Amino acid sequence: MELETIIGLEVHAQMNTKSKMFCGCNNDAWGKEANTTVCPVCMGHPGSLPVVNKAVIEKAVRSSVALGCVVNEKSHFDRKNYFYPDLPTGYQISQYKDPLASHGSVKFSVTDPKTNLSVPGVCRIHRLHIENDAGKLMHRTGYTLCDYNRAGTPLMEIVTEPDLRSAREASAFAEELRRILINAGTSEADMYKGMMRFDASISLRPKGEEKLYPRIEIKNLNSFKALEKALLYQETMLKKLWNEGKQPTGETTVGWIDDEEKTVLLRDKESAADYRYFPEPDIPPLHISESFVAAVVSGLAKLPSEMKAGYVSLGLTEAEAEMLIDQEVLRERFDAIEKAIREPKRASSIVLTQMPGFLTSHGKTLADAPSIANMVELAKAIHSGTINVNAGKDVLEKMIVSEKSASTIIKEEGMGQVNDETTLKAFMKEAIAANPKAIASFREGKTAALGAVVGTVMKLSKGQADAAKVNELLLKELIT
Questions:
Q1: What are the Cα distances from residue 279, in Å, to 138, 156, 285, 408?
Q2: DSSP β-bridge partners for residue 137
Q3: What domains can you pick out in the chain, each with its CATH number?
Q4: Residue 423, helix vs strand vs coil
Q5: What is the phi-psi region of residue 276: left when phi exceeds 0, alpha when psi lies from -120 to 50, beta otherwise?
Q6: What string of DSSP letters covers 114-167?
Q7: Cα(251)–Cα(270) distance, rounded to whole angstroms?
Q8: What are phi and psi of 441, to 5 degrees?
Q9: For 210-241, how does the pLDDT look when each residue is reduced to its tens digit (9 = 90+)?
């Protein structure tokens, strides 16, 4: 029997507001001493009342539009009741029946690493709702500590339809979703800091059937690699059960153990009834007008998929385009250079290959990259012929080490390209004399032999000769 894999995701993304969802506490808990960015509201003290942070609504609306969702005019908050040590109130303020937005879709592509060819895909978004985060448990031998700094952090929960058909598709979709949220300016989505997490649901069914079978939910996956590995593992386990005639009869929740690369049973999956949802009595319903949506989304940048298509149309590979989309430092420099010299390939070589390579070799990061203006100045110097390509690499490395401008380095080190014919011909005369065999081979029709002569000219000129002009002059000299 041929089986089809059915996958859906629930994605939790922290919004990058300055304060928390229902109080004025600092929303940036990273690196802070435990339980220092808290107050009676986010600690759930009796008598404290939540007040909705307007910036949360704005960022959620902005995200919803970027994901192609319909922002609902009316929505409201609900209490989702469950007990856990890091949930101080004993309930989470979330949205259930009437979410902020619904009915969206995300285009993504899955690239085959062997062929570098990509296959397009689309995953529908069932809903986007907002809720407050819980705290964080830190397990120690024999006891557990609880840090409530994160309690009250605003979250977007993005729930997909079961449209994904493989672990790789799920990972590719999640990567594109992260790009969209970062591009929209609504979440840092820093997975190392736990700002984006996944719950993945997976089931199997016979190929051709429309029926959905009981699913397994994998909780709290915090990286694309973990998402993919966990789904592959659970897919293998489910196929084994199906082949043994032991299809799952109920929905269960499992946890992923990263070190052991396996899942473990946590509990039977809860239903909405288990959470005893009811409307949040302390917060009035939301009414979001069309004018509010229009104001919030004004100036929304192009979608990553649109940006990618634009870069690919310039002749860049999909991998290069994704590097530009994912790293603003690279994108800003590429865009400025390409606009200045209209040579996408050269801009790509300088920004995506040379600059990161030199930064890494000197123990620096993208934060230490030369300024946009200095990178454009370097590219213009190469494009105009002031320096050649090899000299350009040398200048770039010196820019990274010394933090000087390209023009300063070129002037200080006398690196200007030599293209004066009298000077070049003097170098050529010496190079021809030094390469009799290459000259003989060239006269016999082996044009590639001329490379040795050009190479000698470059050495004699300390890399400053205009190689293209040298080649042109040599051809004139030797053919006539």
A1: 32, 18, 9, 66
A2: 146
A3: 3-296 (no CATH), 327-412 (no CATH), 421-479 (1.10.10.410)
A4: helix
A5: left
A6: TT--EEEEEEEEEEEEEEE---EEEEETTEEEEE-TTTT-EEEEEEE-S-B-SH
A7: 9
A8: -60, -40
A9: 999 999 999 989 999 999 999 999 999 999 99
Closest of 117, 116, 204 to residue 167, by C-alpha:
204
The C-alpha atoms of residue 259 and residue 229 are separated, in whole angstroms, by 12
- Alpha-carbon distance 409 to 400, whole Å? 11
Q: For residues 342 and 104, what is the distance between their CA atoms, to the nearest angstrom?
A: 36
* Collapsed DSSP state (helix, strand, coil) of residue 102: strand
Please tell me whether residue 71 adopts helix, strand or coil conformation. Answer: strand
How far is 173 from 161, CA to CA, in rounded Å?
12
Asked if residues 81 and 132 have their Cβ atoms less than 8 Å apart, the reply is no
For the segment 73-111, what is each residue's pLDDT rounded down to a tens digit?
999 999 999 888 899 999 999 999 999 999 999 999 998
348 phi, psi to nearest 5 deg: -65, -45
Judge whether 384 and 419 are in contact, CB under 8 Å: no
User: At residue 266, what are phi and psi to the nearest 5 degrees?
Assistant: -105, -50
Residues forming beta bridges with residue 8, ordered by sequence position: 201
**pLDDT band at 269; cut points 50, 70, 90:** low
> Among 56-70, 205-219, 453-467, whose mean pLDDT is lowest?
453-467
pTM of the model: 0.82
**What are the tokens at 88?**
């101080």
Letter string b/e over residues 71-101, b meaning 16 or more CB atoms within 10 A of that residue's CB? bbeebbbbbbeeeeebbbbebbbbbbebbbb
- If you count them, how many residues does the chain have? 480
Going by their DSSP bridges, the two strands 78-81 and 278-279 should be labelled as antiparallel
Nearest to 389 by CA among 337, 354, 422: 354
Exposed / middle / buried, residue 315 (Cβ in 10 Å: 0-12, 13-18, 19+): exposed
Torsion of CA 79, 85, 89, 91, to 10 degrees: 10
CA distance 7 to 124: 12
